[in-house]
Amino acid sequence: MVENETIQVEVAYAKPETQVIIPVNVTMGATVQDAIRQSGILEKFPEIDLAQNKVGIFSKIVPVETILQEKDRVEIYRGLLADPKESRRARADKKTRKEESDPIS
Question: Would you say residue 34 lies in a domain?
Answer without folding.
Answer: yes
